[in-house]
Each structure stands twice: as structure tokens, then as C-alpha cells.
Amino acid sequence: CQPVPKPESRVEVCDLNPCPPRWKVTPAGPCSSSCGLGLAVQLVTCVQILHGQEVLQEEHLCPVAEKPLTSVPCVIRTCSYEWSFSEWSECSTSCGNGIQTRQDFCLSSLTHKPVNPLFCRRFPKAIVVRGCSAGPCPEQQGSQPPGAELQPATPATRLTAAAAATERRHKNLDIPLSAGPREQTEPGGGEEIFLLGVFLTCLYCPGVCGNLFLNATGIINMTGVESRDCTVAIGRPLREEISVTVLESSLNCSAGEVLLFSGRMMWRTGCRKLPLSLINSRTNTLIVKQRVVLPGNGVILQYNSRTATKKYYQDCDQQLFGPQGKIVNPVQLPEERQEVVCRTFITVAPRQRISIRALNTDLGPEGNQTHFNYILVRDVSTMKTVVFRGKQQFLWQSTGSQAEIEFHE
């Protein structure tokens, strides 16, 4: 181009339309669990680039359906300790029904040697006693009805008067309280008493969104709902797990519509290839959340319950579904002390919140407290925990519809 005159260089100012607001995610915070599966909280904000600077905007200016999750699953490392068990003993009787037992011990996954049971105290432990049958006794031949089978024995429980009255009051609503809080039978024994309440009086509200389903099986139609975020919960007694099949789906994946399943031991999201897909809760509760942008879209779910394939609870655990109840936790005598953490799981309808009030607590003298003697309350939606010690009375309120109480020592 040398023979051709070169034009003068110049710079022209241009002003394109500003970039639309977008979601910004900061790195996730610390994992809620030091080992095994936990949750990490990340900060999600709506920002926009203006004149080369990042400016914070109101959240409604960003596409709601594309908002990233504020809590994400995390695993720092596998847990270093786990429960191990000996072989089952012989049946305690030579005929008829008896029991079998086995020994449990805490095992280090690094050395594969037993360690102090305190290292495994936070992990669920499988059963160590079960029923067995050595066949009918001679004098009982022919007395057993055809098809009768031995059922594993479970500890007998009795409702306190207040809990029994509450259960009768809500029996017609099909809202089971639990297998029943254990009644204090030792005279003069200490106890912790808690009252469970729900902020809202609506049990089964109009429409499907925000409700808790407690039947063994059912169909949930989440199509055509007015709310962009529609959440439902499914609850069953301990010892059961829930399986959900997506019968139909009209979600628009390209528009950011998505379906989210969450439970105590699972987390799953999806949009494409949803029809006829099967989701297993692995525990007795499951939360289903649908995020929809276009009116009329949604999914139709069918759920069923069955006996759990793996034990995810302890024999002293209990499940409450509300709307209100009483928890009485007897203090164990020294000779009955067990290296186990008893838990109470509380699940209410997604549009409701939980209030727990301690009426009477006695965890020992203030000067005689140990590191392992306390009550822990966990808000499942945020995975935040609060610890109470001594004779402290308290009022605790949840941010979500699920809570857990752990009674340590």
C-alpha cells in the first residue's frame, strides 16, 4: 500500500446499549460438614456493567429462573470413622420366636482398628437386635395362621397425655405426630420438654404449591400453577423411603425452567429427559421445587413409599410432621448410658415455619457441663446450627420448613 496515500488515523466514540443485568456468584463458603456430604453457602447477587464498572442492582431485574442456587453440595473428604458390626448371634430360642444380637464398634477407616465410640457418635448406627424364628415349637404345631411371618420387635412407646390429645385432635386431618415421644417412667428422673409449633394455621392450603403430602402414594399435578416457584413436600414415617416418577413434563429448558429434588441424603436438579425418570429420596422426606417462567408449564409427579433398603436412622430417633406437638426426652441413668445421639426430625408444609420452645431443660449443673453434653438444633434449609447447654430455656424459629434436634449425651 506504499504508493497509496495513507489516511489519517482517528478514534470515534461509540455508545452501545448497556449490557443487561446478570447474576454474579462469589466462591462458596466453608462446607457445613468436615467429612461426608455437606452444604456450602454461596453469595448470589444481581449486577450490571455500566461505564466499565460493576453496579449492584435489584434482584428482580435479573432473570429469576436463571438464579443460581445459594446452597450447593460439598464434600471435603470421606469420613475417617464408621460403625462396624460382628456377625449375628444364634437365635435365642431353639423353637418359636426369639432375638438375635450383634456387637457394634467404631472403626477407623485409616487403621481399620476399633477406636473410642465417641468418634462415631455423629453417624447413624444400624440395628443390633432383631427378631428371629426357630420354627414352631412341638406344642404349637398348626397354631400359626398360614402366611404369618415374624416381624422384628421394636421398643414399645407410649404417648404422653398432651401428645395423645393433640394426635386425637388432628387425626381426621391425617397429620401423624410421630411414633410417639417416650414417656418418662423413672420416678424423679430429669427430662427436657419442648413444644413444637407452626407459624401458619393453614394445613392444606388451596392449590398444590406449599403443601405437605403424607399419604403412602399419590399424584401431584404442578402444571398451570400461578407461582413461578412452586414447592411441595412428601413425608412418610421413619423406616420408609420415597420414590417419585415424572409422568409428564412441559418445562421449557431453554427458558431456564427446572425441577429440583432435595432430601437429607440426596440433591438432584433436571429439566431434559424428565418424563418417566425415577428419583429415590433414600430417606422418609423429600422436597420438590419447580421453577417455571412460562405460564401453564409444569410437571405431573407420581410418588410411592416403601420400606427403606438401608437404615438411615437410629432406634431412638423420631419424626414429627406437626402442626404441633410435645417432645419429652428422658435423661438416661448412668448404667443405661449409650454412646448414641438421639435425634428428632421435624417437617412441616413448605409454606410454614417452625417454632420450638424449651419449657424445661436440665443438662446438669452449670459448672459440671462437658463438651459432649448439649442440645443442638439445626435449620435444614440453611444448615446453620445452634447449641444450648445447662438449664437454658430458649425459643428457636426456623427459616425453612425442616428442622432437626440432636440430644447429645
From TrEMBL:
Major location (coarse): secreted
SUPFAM superfamilies in the cross-refs: Spermadhesin, CUB domain (SSF49854), TSP-1 type 1 repeat (SSF82895)
Molecular function, one GO term: metalloendopeptidase activity
Protein name: ATS13 metalloproteinase
Subcellular location per the Swiss-Prot or TrEMBL entry: Secreted
Domain of life: Eukaryota
Pfam family, one: TSP1_ADAMTS
Gene from which the chain derives: Adamts13_1
Coiled-coil ranges from the UniProt annotation: none
Database matches in SMART domains: TSP1
